[in-house]
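hiii, so i know i said id send this last week but things got crazy w the move. better late than never?? heres the sequnce for the chain we talked about at the cafe, plus the structure i predicted for it. fair warning i was half asleep when i ran it
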Amino acid sequence: MTTAVMTYDSLVSDITTYVDRNDAPFVNQIPRFIMLAENRIASEIRGLGFIKVVTGNMSISNPVVTKPARWRETISFNFGTGALNNLRVFLKLRTYEYCRTYWPDSSLTGTPKFYADYNYDNYLIVPTPSVAYPFELVYHERPLPLSDTNQTNWTTEYAPQLLLYATLLEAVPFLKNYEIQPMWQAMFDRASAAISKEDMANITDKTGRVQA
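okay and structure toks below
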């Protein structure tokens, strides 16, 4: 027995079936609907499947650290120190203005204490690192976008219903069929709630207490 698996191609096919449209003007817009749906999910959903961890090293005398590709939100930022760099120190999030005020001369170095969003692509670390500290960054990521050449990702494997209804919702303005929108919205909300429930189950013990 073959297990049904969502792929980019099968999602495109499903969309034409659900809305009963396979004309060229509509089909040509489906990649855009999928892109918008993936952005919607990345903005609204905070599940374990979207959490990633990267490691690297700070640069001596450089207060800027580049964010990972497809970064959406930072969860935690720590670095190693001590003789073997195995003592973890968590940086505290502050505003850009706070960091610049706390450490106005970036040419001076020290042990980092704070970080800020420098812009969408970079962090600002203060004090400016005096050592190439190894760091660990935990963050929410938008999965690698689907396309003809990238047929699957975490969402197609673990939350296909979420992606399907998000894509149908993004197609509504093109279809101008707003009567069907509440049903698709309800199905999207139900799929979103299911993912949130699974995440809570993963961080809560059998007695209902959140794990420390």
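btw The chain has two domains: 8-47+144-202, 50-141. thought thatd interest u
miss u guys!!
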